[in-house]
Design a protein that fits this description.
5 domains, alpha+beta, 5-stranded antiparallel sheet, about 30% strand, binds calcium ion, 10 helices
């Protein structure tokens, strides 16, 4: 009995031992596996971090943005209203409706088309239409007018020397092309083909880089999508490569090796990046801003002039740029109906054409005003006219909210 018990116990022990051994083995194996997992996870993690740093999405790498908001002088609203009252017979937006009538009807003294439907305030008022409310039937009528002008909307037409074939009636009606101060073509609301007066290679600018436009031989024209900025050259621009390593960039000529690099690495990255671009884009990246050498003292005397010095057209902007090129800073008044006024000095412009602003009193740099180019179409009852204007945003101001900018007489001394 006892032998049997002993034998059984021994057997149990062996089983127990085997079980223990097997458990130990399992645990050991598991631990080893865990170690391996940790090891590979760490390796994978490191690889992910490196790849993440190299291929970090572009939107995580933000360029230095100027988000400075200037302090506006609220008291200037009273001054503005006094100036407006003294100019009640004037027609600041030149739409044929004098300032006092515009005010009486609740229209903008600065916008010839207060509701933005393509029909001037004058046309709408003289036809008993609502000048401060967009009217769809008028938009349809505009289309009819344009159709009748060219019989068929898809017929080619010429704007600023560019021959256009609109894709659709919307483009034909509202599509525009204007020449930018640096010789580009800014398209707005236009989709279709465009034939340029000179040059044989047309490029659009995407993220600051030249991208070739689709070409159609039949019309010797390039395909334009909406709101594109296009540059046309006599020959293909040379290509270069920008390689960025830990934030330091250098440019190399275009060759087989750099072409491969730009294919492997992203355009922007924390550790390494490589980007193939037109040499003009590289020049632009390296080029600085145009600024005046010094800013003198200025005084304002004429208040009406301060609020109505210009019409925010592209011509005003071209004049401003030529003054800066001639080393003359330009005093400026920013005005918002709701917030007030800020007095500044434009003393330069960036390679993108944005304006560099200093404070009028302290002469200290305050920020950058972003500039865009667009055109407004207006029907005044007789003819369709186009007004080429610039838009601006920055320093807490935005032309889309009706804010205005007035470049003042250059009276620095
Ligand atoms: Ca007016
Ligand atoms: Ca209107």
């Amino acid at each position: 009995m006892s032998r049997l018990q002993d034998t059984l116990r021994d057997k149990n022990n062996t089983v127990e031992h085997r079980k223990e051994f097997s458990d130990f083995h399992k645990i050991k194996k598991k631990k080893e596996l865990n170690k391996k997992i940790i090891k590979y996870t760490a390796i994978c993690g490191c690889i992910a971090v490196v790849l993440g740093a190299i291929y970090v999405p572009q939107y995580f790498i933000k360029d230095n943005e100027d988000s400075i908001e200037v302090k506006l002088n609220v008291g200037a609203v009273t001054e503005y209203n006094a100036a407006l009252k003294n100019a009640s017979e004037e027609d600041w937006d030149k739409d044929g409706v004098i300032n006092s009538i515009e005010q009486q009807k609740g229209l903008s003294v600065w916008n010839a088309d207060s509701d933005g439907d393509g029909f001037s305030d004058y046309y709408e008022l003289s036809n008993n239409l609502k000048a401060n409310e967009k009217d769809q039937s008028l938009t349809d009528m505009m289309k009819t007018i344009l159709k009748s002008k060219d019989e068929k909307y898809d017929m080619a037409y010429k704007v600023n020397g560019v021959v256009l074939w609109a894709d659709d009636i919307k483009s034909r009606t509202y599509g525009r092309v204007i020449r930018t101060p640096d010789g580009g073509y800014q398209f707005t609301n236009f989709k279709g083909y465009a034939q340029f007066p000179e040059g044989t290679c047309a490029y659009r600018i995407k993220n600051g880089k030249h991208v070739k436009l689709k070409y159609r031989k039949k019309e010797d024209a390039y395909y334009i999508k909406e709101d594109e900025l296009v540059y046309v050259y006599d020959s293909k621009p040379d290509m270069v490569n920008r390689i960025t390593f830990f934030g330091k960039s250098f440019y190399t000529s275009d060759n087989f090796f750099t072409k491969i690099l730009s294919g492997i690495f992203p355009d922007k990255g924390v550790i390494i990046a490589s980007s193939r671009m037109a040499s003009i884009d590289a020049d632009n990246e390296l080029a600085g801003s145009t600024v005046v050498s010094s800013v003198g003292k200025a005084t304002y005397t004429d208040k009406i002039n301060r609020f109505s010095a210009n019409t925010n057209t592209l011509d005003d902007l071209v004049t401003l740029r030529s003054l800066i090129q001639n080393n003359q800073a330009v005093p400026v008044s920013f005005y918002s109906d709701k917030k007030g006024e800020y007095l500044g000095i434009v003393y330069g412009y960036t390679r993108n054409g944005d304006l560099i602003i200093a404070d009028y009193y302290s002469k200290d740099y305050v920020g950058i005003l972003n500039i865009g180019y667009t055109a407004e179409t207006l029907y005044n009852g007789n003819d369709i006219t186009q007004k080429e204007i610039f838009t601006f945003s920055g320093l807490g101001l935005n032309s889309e909210n009706g804010d205005r900018i007035n470049f003042l007489d250059n009276n620095f001394h």
